[in-house]
Every structure is written in structure tokens, then in C-alpha cells.
Amino acid sequence: MANKKIPNVGVHHLALSAFDFDKSLKFYTEGLGFETVAEWGEGTGRAAMLDIGSGSGILSVCALLLGAGSAVCVDIDPLAVGVALENAARNGVAVSALCGDILVDTALRGKLGGGYGLICSNIVADVIISLCQIIPGLLARDGVWIASGIIDTRLGEVEAALSNSGFDVFSVTASGSWAAVAAKHT
Questions:
Q1: What's the CA angle centered on 158, arms 169 and 141, to 5 degrees?
Q2: Ordered structural domains, the chain, with CATH
Q3: How does DSSP assign 61-91, residue by residue?
Q4: What pLDDT is attached to residue 53?
Q5: DSSP character at residue 44
Q6: CB-based contact 103:127 (threshold 8 Å)
């Protein structure tokens, strides 16, 4: 059944802990590349998903509800890790959640392994640019990276960094002053 609040997304409902639901819904659907996650997650038995800067874990929860095989949340904030686990439980799915900074913590990257069919990063542009060197080692062949939370004035920089790191950007979604890009590593 199609969702009336989130067009083109087949998830009927989702329970989320948020301080301002309407603001969160607008942000996730318009600025976060949510529709790309929905497209990737269609069908059953989809590959593993990694959510870097997971915050509430909403993208992981949605990917699981749409058929992802598994999801791992990573955030530098231990409170966010707890909220991601809570939101997954509220929605009847299970995520793995780890706390740490993937940019500097090689042990954390070792725990994560690789082979993710979808990686989402809802983080500021500087971090996304730095992740361009790390994501290829985590992404499965033909996997998709959705980078979001990009302020429109930095979109060109992010696209250039992706291109310089061997990524092919195949989708750009913008809403207001926010943008999300979807890319594959070539």
C-alpha cells in the first residue's frame, strides 16, 4: 500500500522517536535521499546496508522494512546509537549499531568489514568528502552510496570529490538548501 505522506514509498508506517515529527519527516523525505533508499530496497533478500552517521537509524529501518538483508548503524554519538536500536525495535526489525568515528578508527572499519550493497551517510560535506577514500573499501561491487545532508553551496565540491575518487554520480536530489547524491564506484 502506498504511503500518503511519503509518495512512491511502499512502507505503510514507521515508528520514529523525534522531537519534531513534521520537521523530521520533511528532512528525511526531501533532503536525505529517502526515495533512493526505497528504490534500492525494493524486493526481498537485498544486500546488507551500512548507515554512517545514522542518528535515529531511520534509513536503516526503512531499508530493512523494504527488504534489505541486514543493516548496520554507525554514529559518533552513543545516544544516537541507542536511539537507532530503539527505533529498530519499535518497527519490528533488528539493526547492529556501533559507536565510533569511521574516519579515524581503523578497528571500527575492520569490524564493519565490507560488501555493503547500500551505504548511506547523512553528514556534513567535509565528512562526505573525507569518506570518499574509505567508502570504496566498504561498498560491494555495484553497490550504491547515498550521501546526504549536503548544503547546496557545497554540492559542487562533493560531486568533484566523488568523481575524483572514482564514483559515478547517477542521481542528485535537492530540496531547499539541502541535497543528496547517489553514486556507484567505477
A1: 40
A2: 21-185 (3.40.50.150)
A3: HHHHHTTEEEEEEEES-HHHHHHHHHHHHHT
A4: 94
A5: S
A6: yes
